[in-house]
Specification:
about 280 residues; alpha/beta; Rossmann fold; 6-stranded mixed beta sheet; 10 helices; binds iron/sulfur cluster
Length: about 280
């Protein structure tokens, strides 16, 4: 049987790492996999180390890509190939996206599109596949509300919903049997200070590792009026800036606790609200 090519979007988290492992171990007779990781330059170093470890141990032959932004042209980001060693660590691709499109936030949610989706589409086209060629995305059965409205149009499939339905506790349990792990807690995943995260998670990061906000603080100070419109923009929901998050974090509050499920947290306090697509950044 001729095998079909399947792109697999590895986001750098435990769920999508498990998906990569599961596909390799259960679907290798059906597909030729092309594993892709789109680096934004704002991931935690431990995320990059984890991605590299998964690549080596699972044998993913992972392709690391980053956005190439085209200033002054009406075209979306294309891609360049990087590696664990050469991947940006100081937000360089993110800064280029902000220079062109402005600060991303709930009203201008372009960072996922320009830092991940368009570079992945560009990479697919470079291999002579269509932009919407089939791509596996690591969304679990207990977070089905994260599937974006354009998932079908983008060719996304969800193996952890349809073929191997799995929940977060099962993923966490699976990782307890592995000889390596991500090494950071949930609130530090993806871009560490992602504006989609709940205010509680952001306040927790501000309190524990305030330096993680240095990049977003500089972006707000340098590029607040970049992009469409002239109104100054800030990153966080409720029109909160980095400084606002820090002010809130000075007051007494209960720090984020990974043990509490997100939904339960959301029901307790509005500061636990995160976007419907959870805190993640997926090609769906
Ligand atoms: S993780 Fe958040 S900040 Fe980073 S690209 Fe995705 S949506 Fe944007």
């Amino acid at each position: 049987m001729k095998k079909e090519a399947l792109f697999v979007s590895f986001s750098g988290g435990r769920t999508s790492a498990y998906m990569c492992w599961w596909l390799l171990n259960n679907k290798a007779d059906e597909y030729n996999f092309i594993f892709v990781f789109a680096n934004t330059g704002q991931e935690h170093e431990k995320t990059l180390e984890f991605v590299n470890e998964c690549d080596k141990r699972f044998g993913l032959n992972l392709v690391w890509i980053e956005a190439v932004v085209h200033h002054g042209e009406r075209i979306g980001s294309t891609h360049k190939i990087v590696s664990f060693e050469t991947a940006s660590r100081k937000g360089e691709p993110f800064e280029e996206v902000i220079k062109k499109y402005g600060i991303p936030n709930q009203d201008y949610p372009h960072c996922n599109r320009e830092l991940k989706l368009n570079p992945i589409f560009s990479y697919k086209r470079s291999l002579e596949f269509k932009s919407n060629h089939k791509m596996a995305v690591g969304i679990r059965v207990d977070e089905i509300d994260r599937i974006g409205p354009k998932a079908k149009e983008h060719g996304c499939i969800h193996p952890l919903i349809k073929q191997r339905p799995i929940t977060k506790p099962e993923i966490v349990h699976w990782w307890t049997f592995q000889s390596f792990d991500l090494g950071i807690s949930e609130e530090e995943g993806n871009c560490v200070t992602c504006w989609k995260k709940s205010i509680r998670k952001l306040m927790t990061i501000a309190k524990r590792t305030p330096e993680q906000f240095n990049f977003f603080r500089r972006m707000e100070s340098q590029y607040s009026t970049a992009g469409a419109g002239n109104d100054p923009r800030v990153f966080f929901r409720g029109h909160n800036s980095v400084d606002d998050i820090f002010e809130e974090a000075k007051k007494p509050f209960k720090e984020f606790n990974e043990e509490l499920p997100e939904l339960q947290l959301r029901m307790l306090d509005p500061i636990d609200f995160s976007n419907g697509c959870s805190d993640s950044c997926e090609a769906a």
